[in-house]
Amino acid sequence: MASSFAPPKLADFILTEKLGSGTYATVYKAYRKTDSREAVAVKVVSKKSLNKASMENLLTEIEILKTVRHPHIVQLKDFQWDSENIYLILEWCSGGDLSRFIRSRRILPERVARRFLQQIACSLKFLHEKNISHLDLKPQNILLSGSVLKLADFGFAQYMSPWDEQSALRGSPLYMAPEMVCRRQYDARVDLWSVGVILYETLFGRAPFASRSFAELEEKIRSDKPIELPAGARVSRDCRDLLLRLLDRDPDSRISFEEFFLHPFVDLEHMPSAESLGKAKELVLRAVQKDQEGERAAALSLYCSALEHFVPAIHCKMDQWKFSKISFHQKLGRFYLFPVKSLLWRCMFFIGQRQNIIHH
């Protein structure tokens, strides 16, 4: 029996499987006709489904995605239109979304949740500096490409200065900040609440307001009861502190963006990135110089700082080496573990020397 599935036709692309659909759009996997190896995601928006507000949202989404380039934000490669549809050609992320990833594992170890949070925080910092609020942060709108997270679906995003306030409901109820639902007046800080819900869900397998019905959900949102972690929750002190500060019902008491980016659990300075190895090498060179000049305390401090960047550098390279002809363990030893062991021995040597000086 022939399938009734008939994706729309696009000049430069062949649309294949349907990935998902919403009120206004359907997303397909597609390939460029001139290069079948290049996969993309095509968001197809039916013009007939758009009202004035949704058209404005779509135009804002295109405008934002055209101007932002960031490793943790899905890239808009092109957009086209015809008499029936508007097409957004987006970067393909082969790992699906974070929601599916969480469901497949039920809960994530804190170290994994933290690495994911760092990537979300990195993209939010970039957006915050441009006065852009996402306003629909949830695991379904965070895609995976290997171990790299990318924010997607900017359909509700807005340009919002810190003092700007909005009143229109935006986003998904399970991830909406209480002030958006209860007061219908909110600002950019609603994104911080949503991040707290996402972190909670990665650690405990469900959102803090998970409910059987919308009525139950609304009751939980409107309650004054502070958010509590599940009984017996095993998380670090920094993780617990951040969760409770993100999930403060009062936006004026909630952690600020500046405090969030500097929080020790987020620790963007030591986030695994392409720059981690360069930072480590630079610190080692400075440490060697201090060592040669006889400034042992300064050298020790720099060596320890270098170690804090070497470890993230290892995490950053793991995915790149998985399918290499040279074994992962060979590369890990050659490029990272040998230098790290050397640094550890040097740090221990300095610490031993300092203890001998103190005892004498």
From TrEMBL:
It is an enzyme of class 2 (transferase). Its main location: cytoplasm. It comes from the Eukaryota. Keywords: ATP-binding, Autophagy, Cytoplasm, Kinase, Nucleotide-binding, Repeat, Serine/threonine-protein kinase, Transferase. It holds the Pfam family Pkinase. Its EC number is 2.7.11.1. It is found in: Cytoplasm. GO terms for cellular component: autophagosome; cytosol; phagophore assembly site membrane. ATP binds at K43. GO terms for molecular function: ATP binding; protein serine/threonine kinase activity. One of its GO terms (biological process) is regulation of autophagy. It catalyses: L-seryl-[protein] + ATP = O-phospho-L-seryl-[protein] + ADP + H(+); L-threonyl-[protein] + ATP = O-phospho-L-threonyl-[protein] + ADP + H(+). Residues 13-266 form the Protein kinase domain. InterPro entries: Atg1-like (IPR045269), Kinase-like_dom_sf (IPR011009), MIT_dom (IPR007330), MIT_dom_sf (IPR036181), Prot_kinase_dom (IPR000719), Protein_kinase_ATP_BS (IPR017441), Ser/Thr_kinase_AS (IPR008271). Belongs to the protein kinase superfamily. This is Serine/threonine-protein kinase ULK3.
